[in-house]
UniProtKB/TrEMBL annotation:
<dbReference type="GO" id="GO:0030272">
    <property type="term" value="F:5-formyltetrahydrofolate cyclo-ligase activity"/>
</dbReference>
<keyword id="KW-0479">Metal-binding</keyword>
<keyword id="KW-0460">Magnesium</keyword>
<feature type="binding site">
    <location>
        <begin position="132"/>
        <end position="140"/>
    </location>
    <ligand>
        <name>ATP</name>
    </ligand>
</feature>
<dbReference type="GO" id="GO:0005524">
    <property type="term" value="F:ATP binding"/>
</dbReference>
<feature type="binding site">
    <location>
        <position position="55"/>
    </location>
    <ligand>
        <name>substrate</name>
    </ligand>
</feature>
<dbReference type="InterPro" id="IPR002698">
    <property type="entry name" value="FTHF_cligase"/>
</dbReference>
<dbReference type="GO" id="GO:0009396">
    <property type="term" value="P:folic acid-containing compound biosynthetic process"/>
</dbReference>
<keyword id="KW-0547">Nucleotide-binding</keyword>
<keyword id="KW-0067">ATP-binding</keyword>
<comment type="similarity">
    <text>Belongs to the 5-formyltetrahydrofolate cyclo-ligase family.</text>
</comment>
<dbReference type="GO" id="GO:0035999">
    <property type="term" value="P:tetrahydrofolate interconversion"/>
</dbReference>
<dbReference type="Pfam" id="PF01812">
    <property type="entry name" value="5-FTHF_cyc-lig"/>
</dbReference>
<dbReference type="InterPro" id="IPR037171">
    <property type="entry name" value="NagB/RpiA_transferase-like"/>
</dbReference>
<dbReference type="InterPro" id="IPR024185">
    <property type="entry name" value="FTHF_cligase-like_sf"/>
</dbReference>
<feature type="binding site">
    <location>
        <begin position="3"/>
        <end position="7"/>
    </location>
    <ligand>
        <name>ATP</name>
    </ligand>
</feature>
<keyword id="KW-0436">Ligase</keyword>
Amino acid sequence: MNKKELRTHYKTLRSQLSDEEVENLSVDIANQLLQLPIWEKSYYHIFLPIEKQKEINTEYILHILQGKDKNILVSKSNFENNTLEHFLLTDGTKLEVNSWGIPEPVDGIQIPEKKIEVVFIPLLAFDHIGNRVGYGKGFYDKFLAKCNSDTLKIGLSFFDAEKEIQNVIPTDIGLDLCVTPTEIYNFGN
């Protein structure tokens, strides 16, 4: 399927999940992440979920990161140029939900992309070679292009890999890993 078809298909699948299923699957993903050898890093970027889109509840991953005393970064979106700014998440960080339903920091300590070592990436679909489909605005492609080449890119998905994503373009940045409730995909990019 192409990206547009996949977006429609996976938005529909996610919309059919109950709140309890979203929570249980989110816990399963966090537990899968604990199996990965990624916890020696210092700077981790995580997305805060759009609840109305039934995105993965990353609260469980946040607890892991806080328990391991890691530097946690969250983004603020600029919808004029589809870019993200990244801020250190602290006890004093004030979050507000923007017009798209994304919880974002109001302000704070801004951290450059080059410092980020691990990025947990929201997505709608991914394939067996690490291509991914998001909402189509290119926020994460622009963000990941500014990161170091060894920054670990980890997709999080409720669903298993597609065979193939058609119409991938050169500016699409693939995943190194994708974690589902039952499987860890390693793409070796």
